[in-house]
Amino acid sequence: STSTSSLWYQDLCSYKWKAVDRDNKVSYTLKLCESSPPTACGPGTAVCAQTLGTDTKKSVGELSQQRLSGLVLDYNSTEKCPGSDNNIQTSISFQCGKTMGTPEFVTVSQCVHYFEWRTYTACKKDKFKPHKEVPCYVFDSDGKKHDLSPLIKVSDGYLVDDGDDSVDFYINICRSLSLNQPDKSCPEGSAACVVTSQGSFNMGSPTGPLELVDSDSLRLQYALSPGSSRPEMCKDHDPAVTITFNCPSSRHSGSTPKMTAESNCRYEVVWVTEYACHRDYLESHTCKLTSEQHDISIDLTPLTLSSSDHPYYAHSDPSDGADSYVYYLNVCGQILNGECGDDPVISSCQVKKNGDVKKVAGRNQKQMLRYSDGDLTLIYPDGDKCSSGFQRMTIINFECNKNTSNGGRGNPVFAGETDCTYYFDWETAFACV
Ligand code: M6P
User: From the alpha carbon of 388, which atom of ligand 1 is closest?
Assistant: First the structure.
């Protein structure tokens, strides 16, 4: 057998992955590598399809029938596709992402089961590779996905509210921390750490994937990895951190993670957050959220510009002498000034002010509108690639303001760029709930 240690997707081998096709009620389990845990279809199967709520299962891809070309991983099965010469098969298309990500079911067409996966393992030069990260999603018993990935910090961490000003307790979610404040740092590899006047101490990193407690509650556990030394302040006790995420029973504006118990370096953290709720409650692929599905009613379509309107734009004018850009945006529609081309799916375009650089900074084909913990966010992924392999992405954070200009529409304000993700703040009357 061949060694997988040099494979770019090797970090994904330690886990069994799951994706669900809700429309056809099929649950898929993925075993990407020989060393990965087996699926219910047996040890030779790479992709096992199961009808939700039944025992019916079959292989739609065998591990021995794997082909890798570029960032596409295909697995043939041994069964013929009815009415065709091809076999039933699976095709997983990877893209560079900033976290480990999750496989997403796309479609089945002519017996090919398609998946997409945005993951740091597919980026160039280990650009977003963390010290440690674990799968950050679960499916509940109804096949609904709960995904905490939006909470993962690529840099920085969360300060836990522990009612003690002399000690700062930091965590990251599903991933090791990298604090970038100058005076505060956590030991390398820690996902929970205590910062005191004596220094900073590693309180552990995830011991396994995110777990489902029940349909409204998720759990992560952190402990010291083998070889890390126990902080002196813990004396004879091994540090252990349990973080419980609770989905609130009705709409709820954000709160911070709270320390609910601590003794002998055992910490219990509880976070009431809507990110723990199932994803279809939080997200929409249109420009609307409805009270039936989302328990909140929002319609951003009045912001969509038509060809007679001036485009929305925002300037970045960095004080540090870096390049200046103007960004053109539309909301749930294409950019009509043609600066980045006439493609109807372009919704965000970056133009360098003194130069000829024009980059698509996001497309609306797979746009996503999310309302969670009081934040209304519109995401345009799939822009032009940066050198890391990451496709430029635009994230607009809408705020309610009933008194904005432009007929209540308001205007976007550039808030910053981190590694080819562009952030905008936008006050508008149409974000009021
Ligand atoms: C351009 C702009 C920047 C971006 C940079 C990335 O200058 O689009 O916003 O950060 O490209 O450059 P590279 O592909 O070399 O990483």
Answer: 16
In CATH terms, the superfamily for domain 10-128 is: Mannose-6-phosphate receptor binding domain (2.70.130.10)
Q: Which atom of ligand 1 is nearest to the CA of 392?
A: 8
pLDDT in tens, 342-387: 999 999 999 999 878 999 999 999 999 999 999 999 999 999 999 9
pLDDT of residue 182 exceeding 70, the answer is no
The pLDDT value given to residue 180 = 65
Helix or strand or coil: residue 278? coil
Give CATH 2.70.130.10 domain extents, the chain: 10-128, 150-276, 284-290+298-431
User: Could you tell me which CATH number the domain at 284-290+298-431 has?
Assistant: 2.70.130.10
Q: What is the pLDDT of residue 228?
A: 87
Pocket of ligand 1 (CB under 6 A): 350, 359, 386-388, 417, 420
Does 150-276 carry CATH code 2.40.340.10? no
Q: Is 0.85 exceeded by the ipTM? A: yes
Residue 360's DSSP bridge partners are: 349
Residue 306, helix vs strand vs coil: coil
Which residues, including other chains, have CB under 8 Å from residue 18's CB and lie 6 or more apart?
27, 28, 29, 30, 103, 139
pLDDT in tens, 203-229: 999 999 999 999 999 999 999 998 888
User: Which atom of ligand 1 is least distant from the CA of 419?
Assistant: 10
* Beta strands in 102-226, from DSSP E residues, in sequence order: 103-109, 112-119, 137-139, 145-147, 158-160, 168-171, 192-196, 199-206, 211-214, 217-223
186 residue type, one letter? C
Q: How far is the CA of 148 from the centre of ligand 1 (A)?
A: 28
Collapsing DSSP to helix, strand or coil, 203 comes out as strand
